[in-house]
Design goal:
Blueprint (H helix, E strand, L loop, with lengths): L4 H13 L2 H8 L3 H15 L4 E3 L5 E3 L1 H28 L5 E6 L6 H13 L4 E6 L3 H9 L5 E5 L10 E9 L1 E6 L4 H8 L14 E4 L4 H11 L4 E5 L3 H9 L4 E5 L8 H4 L2 E5 L5 E8 L6 H23 L3 E3 L2
């Protein structure tokens, strides 16, 4: 029997993502290659591991469930051996694979990278942006990342294998052009508001690809006359559009310190009293034994809890009228 770690990695990624197509995308390979390697693994084992439905999603067979757990154990043990080897026999070989959501682009990454270089000038730093926390969780699971700044809830299934520390508490905000008055907002939020008398800017909102449902639900419940106007590629672009009086948008508070002061001066930010979001710094648990990785984790936590949290608190949050 000839089973490779590469085949196990592909199988594990298929399980995590739920489809061969998504697994190929996560691994950066073609879907036929994933199908081929999975078929070879099943041939070697003499058993079918997954069943694909008409939508392309997979279900595990009894053998698939067994090898889901077994492959996780094997891959984790093998990775631990590789890290132990690096610690004992290789010098200056620290690789930081940091995953973050788009909220933390720009100045956050610049400052965090400068901080990491002070800990290890020879460390290789790779930053990956993902549009949502689920994608970051998947990349951690398949070990394409060894660090991530993401939400605690997205990691609940993998908490046992990760070293997780609180970073900051995020909240959802509503961003409105400063030209829109509090009286305009109060009237628009009234369920009996007459469409023709609402400030036109409040009748348009800007969404992002991964926030369409969240935005629609909030606007349907609070500004029923408002309609989706533009789909922006990023939160930063959405806020730029708001600053130019082209509508309003929802945005996480953690994003706002990365927006230029010139743009922030053109908008008002309202606390929408939504559920608070606990954001954490996560690292594979076995890396705690490596002094440099442990220092990097501590530094990321320190930067988030002190510097970024302070920057978030400097944003003036208004109460909805």
């Amino acid at each position: 029997m000839h089973i490779t770690f590469h085949q196990l990695e592909i199988f594990k990624t298929v399980v995590i993502t739920g489809s061969l197509t998504l697994a190929a995308r996560r691994l950066g390979v073609t879907q036929p290659l994933v199908s081929q390697q999975l078929a070879k693994l099943e041939e070697q084992l003499g058993a079918r591991l997954v069943i694909r439905n008409r939508k392309g999603l997979i279900e595990l067979t009894a053998a698939g469930n067994y090898w889901d757990k077994s492959s996780s154990d094997l891959l984790s043990r093998f990775e631990n051996i590789i890290y132990d080897h690096d610690i004992k026999f290789r010098e200056n070989d620290v690789v930081v694979q940091l995953g973050v959501i788009p909220n933390l682009r720009s100045s956050f990454i610049t400052q965090a990278t400068n901080m990491l270089e002070k800990i290890s000038r020879t460390a290789k730093i790779e930053v990956t942006y993902e549009a949502d926390t689920k994608a970051l969780s998947e990349l951690l699971k398949i070990r394409k990342l060894n660090f991530a700044i993401t939400t605690r809830t997205s990691l609940k299934d993998e908490a046992h294998s990760l070293h997780i520390s609180p970073a900051y508490t995020d909240v959802l905000t509503w961003v409105v052009p400063r030209s829109v008055t509090a009286a305009d907002i109060k009237y628009a939020l009234n369920s009996e508001a007459v469409l023709s008398e609402i400030n036109p800017t409040l009748l348009k909102y800007i969404t992002m690809p991964k926030s369409k449902i969240l935005s629609k639900n909030w606007y349907d419940n609070n500004l029923k006359h408002s309609e989706s106007y533009i789909e922006a590629p990023t939160f930063s672009t959405a806020i730029d559009l708001v600053a130019n009086n082209l509508g309003t948008c929802l945005a996480n508070l953690s994003l706002l310190p990365n927006i230029s002061r010139a743009v922030i001066k053109k908008v008002r930010v309202y606390d929408v009293a939504a559920e608070k979001i606990e954001t954490v710094v996560a690292m594979h648990r076995h890396l705690k034994t490596h002094s440099t990785y442990s220092l990097i984790h501590a530094a990321l936590v320190d930067y988030c809890t002190r510097h970024h949290s302070l920057a978030m608190s400097s944003i003036l949050l208004a109460k909805l009228p």
